[in-house]
Amino acid sequence: VNGCYMLTNECGYTSFEVDITDVVDFGAENVVAVYVDTSEHEGWWYEGAGIYRHVYLEVTETVSLDRYGVYVHPEKLEGDLWRVPVETTVRCDRLTDGEITVRTQLFDETGACAAQAEGRLTVPAYDRATLHQEMTVERPLLWDVDDVHLYTAKTELLADGEVIDEAQNRFGFRTIRYDANEGFFLNGRHVKIKGVCCHQDYGLTGKAVPERVQRYRLQLMKEMGANGYRTAHYPHHPYTMDVLDELGFLVMDETRWFESTPDGMAQLEMLIKRDRNHPCVILWSVGNEEPTHMTSVGFRIARTMMAAARKLDATRPVTTAVSNDPLICDVMNSVDVVGVNYNLLDWEKIHEKHPEKPFVITECCATGTTRGWYYADSPARGYIYGYDRDTNRSFLSRENTWKKVMSLPYLAGEYQWAGIEHRGETVWPRLCSQSGAVDLYLNRKDAF
Question: CA 228, CA 238: separation in Å to the nearest integer?
């Protein structure tokens, strides 16, 4: 900014902010220069280049709500009564302490106020402080996969009776429970997760996916019959998370880097703080198919990341998606929920080894098909037979994988690879693995 170095962000999928107040030339022209370096890749899929998510210039008072500073986590009490704790974190960017009032109101879908609270908070100079408030709501409408109801928490900061900052955060009333023998329960009702894994790109626009296309993609998945969505393998667009709430998906929310480095931990913190108000999120994931999962190094990394996740949000369990020999994998001893990619022949043995832990199939199937191609595979053309089929003994068809999942009552469910085709993981002349139920251009395939 105006020639002053401000920040480097090492991950292309995580949100970040930088306070430029000190170097701004007020009342004059300012130059903000952003350099994006894509000379090294961050995954084994198409990642695009440039800036493909929203960028904002935010102007606030010197006392303001912190980024992702409102955390609403309803807890069911006896009968129809719910306790609603709200944590509000405020920052002070000046030499004197900030004395403010925090007003929180909870609104239902009709705009009626369901509860409210008000409290005073002193924020030390150039620091942050958190106010804990608690309200109760009787007989709220519950968020469910087939009957979505969302509430809104409106937060206002007041100084001398005037509102100096405000924010609105949607949330939902729902309970989740994982059982090591019986699977997953939503609002006390047994629900089998019928999920899909998805990257976030689109054949016509690459990684810069317009919001209307993000919504359409998820509507297709819902129409197909999916009730679950895995954000493979990084934080997805905030708008996508909003739509997942609205359509009633059970989301496995995944961070990008399986690292307990400062950068890796900052990425995890950003993910959880940003998404923890979403009722759709039922499971955090701290990694995917990591080579270190097999070693004591991976065990220690996972243990550190999971401890941080639980501190930020104690209402959801934490997993990591294991593909490398999950039967003998050290990291399984650290997770709340066993998460396994593929390895279908070992599912029963893994459960026998960890009978006390809930179990979900974090990735399965990966059955490639080409839309409209009903002949033998043609590698020269990049075409794959269009009907569902078993690839090998571990990579079964979608139908046979689902039959296997249904035969094991302790499985919470599965997330199929993949809901939608994505660029990458392929050989020329194919542009993708073609394992999606919907193709790169959002046309339904037979797998749909």
Answer: 17
Query: 382: left (phi > 0), else alpha (psi -120 to 50), else beta?
Result: left
Contact 87, 102 (CB under 8 A): no
Token output for 308: 């941080």
Mean pLDDT across 228-254: 97
Which distant-in-sequence residues (6+ apart) come within 8 Å of 62 by Cβ?
Answer: 92, 93, 94, 98
Using DSSP's 3-state secondary structure scheme, residue 402 falls into helix
> What is the rounded CA–CA span in Å between residue 322 and residue 80?
39
Measured distance CA(118)–CA(133) in Å, rounded: 8
Helix, strand, or coil (residue 138): strand
The mean per-residue pLDDT over the stretch 42-53 comes to 85
pLDDT in tens, 285-341: 999 999 999 999 999 999 999 999 999 999 999 999 999 999 999 899 999 999 999
Question: Helix (H, G, I), strand (E, B), or coil: what is residue 204?
Answer: coil
The mean pLDDT value for 133-152 works out to: 97
Quick check: helix, strand or coil at residue 179? Answer: strand
Band of the pLDDT at 136, cuts 50, 70, 90? very high
pLDDT at residue number 444: 97
In Å, the largest CA–CA distance within the chain is 75
| Spatial separation of the C-alpha atoms in residues 391 and 51, rounded to whole Å | 38
**Strands, DSSP E only, in 392-442?**
411-417
Cβ proximity of 257 and 264 under 8 Å: yes
Beta bridge partners, 109, equal none
The length of the chain in residues reads 448
Asked whether residue 394 carries a pLDDT value surpassing 90, the answer given is no
Parallel, antiparallel, or unpaired: how do β-strands 359-365 and 411-417 relate?
parallel
